[in-house]
TrEMBL record:
GO CC term (a single one): plasma membrane
Cited Gene3D superfamilies: P-loop containing nucleotide triphosphate hydrolases (3.40.50.300)
Gene Ontology MF annotations: ATP binding; ATP hydrolysis activity
Protein's name in the database: Urea transport system ATP-binding protein
Amino acid sequence: MNILKSLADRDRVFDFLVPVASPVDVRHGPILYLEDVSVSFDGFKAINDLNLTIDDGELRCIIGPNGAGKTTMMDIITGKTRPDTGQVWFGSRHDLLTLNEPQIASLGIGRKFQKPTVFEALSVFENLELAMAADKRILPTLTARLTGEIRDRIEEVLATIGLTELRYGPAGILSHGQKQWLEIGMLLMQRPRLLLVDEPVAGMTEQEMERTAELLTGLAGKGKQSVVIVEHDMGFVRSIARTVTVLHQGSVLAEGSMDKVSSDPRVVEVYLGADPDVEAA
Ligand SMILES: Nc1ncnc2c1ncn2[C@@H]1O[C@H](COP(=O)(O)OP(=O)(O)OP(=O)(O)O)[C@@H](O)[C@H]1O
Ligand SMILES: [Mg+2]
């Protein structure tokens, strides 16, 4: 009944289905601000007085050894984990610690987990279409005009992620890398302002990595997206990094250009030199 009522009122349907620009306020400061954040799991401090500032449009790489707290930091930003202490702000207006996961996502924070979760039996196009609808039951009842708007947005995202030619094929036939791009596209359908991407190039071919580097650097920009990337592949990080933050034992160990942090003896000791899996480019 409610659905029928809202369909009768076109404007309300549009409000509901087409995400409006994120309400984040970055006029006077950063897009993401973490201050003195700590969280313990059974007495173990996974995040320990963490301070982090991300500017609007920034592309930031986060590196650090296994267990440093990188994924936990993303869990805190997205509302999956509540810190014991500290502050987490999205722009100057939104205190993320007062909001739950869906509320945080709807403010314009999109998160990409490592494993792609696309619907393999659906086409690439349909996957993007589904990502657009806040309430997936409403999708079949869209009006013609609405479908046109969504179609335009889907085509725009398809071009961004480089899957235009494959749009009517099932997502199941995509390569691992293409599935990752599709999932980034699904996040883009919601017009996020901040994208959190955990280990995007794990399992990718060299070519796919290069394409992913272009995609992520292209997404970052003032008034578009800010992009925070956690990645262990140092060759990849070096190819995209502007500012790199090194996490260790739940806090920032070093921060700066790739050259600066990779020549920091403390970073070499805890990460670059110590982990045989890490290729210290
Ligand atoms: N929900 C949880 N309960 C208990 N311990 C947790 C939980 N989440 C994370 N941890 C612990 O917190 C620490 C930080 O883990 P986290 O996954 O954030 O590290 P990471 O930097 O992402 O590591 P990796 O590079 O291996 O992905 C680890 O010791 C982990 O075992
Ligand atoms: Mg992790």
